[in-house]
Specification:
- This protein is of the alpha/beta class.
- The chain has ten helices and eight strands.
- Helices cover 49% and strands 11% of the residues.
Length: 274
């Protein structure tokens, strides 16, 4: 109800409306917006960011300056509620993307099919022509369930680049991303990296680019070993050591969970056919 009131308070100044999508999941919501809105560019952000004062003007200027570009993106700077835990402050660069942190201002101006890093969905714009051609994969992105899934925007931009599209980085179009205390935890990081791996593995398996089977014994042993390295690192009191092991073990856990889920789904489907 608060969303309705906030939108209503701006209707005398902005042509703003609410679009309702009954299917849960961020990718469904993005696709619904693309289908419903007639425009030249889509500018995307999140509900927990604060945009810089000239944010929209920076994007508008970029659209005019680079009419050849298919997409644009700008910095996302995490802003922690209260004082972040000491271990998190120490190893923040290693987990920056887990908080949607993105700042490529020092080494990127242009994106193409060779780019290794791309903008994130909390601060990006995509030309309508490409956005309508490349929809968001509903198997990725935030959605109900135990897993913290993501990556629908990166997948979309990668497909645009693969088709020959280019993009530009806008260092002045900054947003600040609020990180509440609940996410300033080891439990959140474990869920995040497991969810990223889960989503990517599941999409890869469903696309047929990996074998749909339960993880191998070798993968399970790697999970045990990385878990051991994490525990040893915690005992040693060196965050930069144990954070790497935590990320590795979480990713393995997510991959194995995705394989297990699809294995069980395939088994159930075969039972129904019998």
């Amino acid at each position: 109800m608060q969303t309705q009131n906030v939108v209503a308070s701006f209707r005398d100044r902005l042509p703003i409306e609410i679009l309702v999508e009954r299917r849960q999941g961020l990718a469904h919501a993005r696709n619904a917006a693309v289908a419903a809105i007639d425009c030249d560019y889509f500018i995307w952000t999140d509900d927990d960011v604060t945009v810089s004062c000239n944010w929209i003007r920076d994007y508008e200027a970029a659209f005019e300056r680079h009419p050849e570009a298919a997409f644009f993106g700008g910095p996302i700077l995490p802003q922690f509620e209260g004082e972040a835990p000491a271990w998190l402050a120490t190893c923040l660069p290693a987990v920056y993307t887990a908080f949607a942190g993105r700042d490529l201002s020092k080494n990127v101006t242009r994106f193409d099919r060779n780019s290794k890093e791309l903008p994130f969905g909390a601060n990006m714009a995509i030309r309508a022509r490409e956005q309508r051609q490349f929809s968001y994969d509903v198997r990725l992105g935030r959605q109900p369930g135990r897993q913290i899934l993501s990556g629908e925007e990166s997948d979309c931009l990668e497909r645009i680049c693969s088709a020959g599209g280019i993009g530009f980085w806008l260092p002045s179009a900054r947003v600040d991303h609020r990180i509440d205390r609940k996410r300033q935890s080891i439990a959140y990081l474990r869920r995040y990296y497991a969810g990223v791996s889960f989503g990517k593995t599941r999409a890869r398996l469903l696309n047929g680019s990996a074998r749909p089977q339960v993880g191998t014994l070798g993968a399970r042993w790697r999970l045990v070993l990385s878990g051991g390295r994490y525990l040893w690192g915690r005992l040693s009191g060196q965050p930069k050591v144990w954070i790497r092991a935590l990320k590795h073990s979480a990713r393995l856990s997510g991959e194995l969970a995705a394989r297990r889920e699809l294995h069980m789904a395939g088994r159930d489907a075969r039972r129904l056919e019998q």
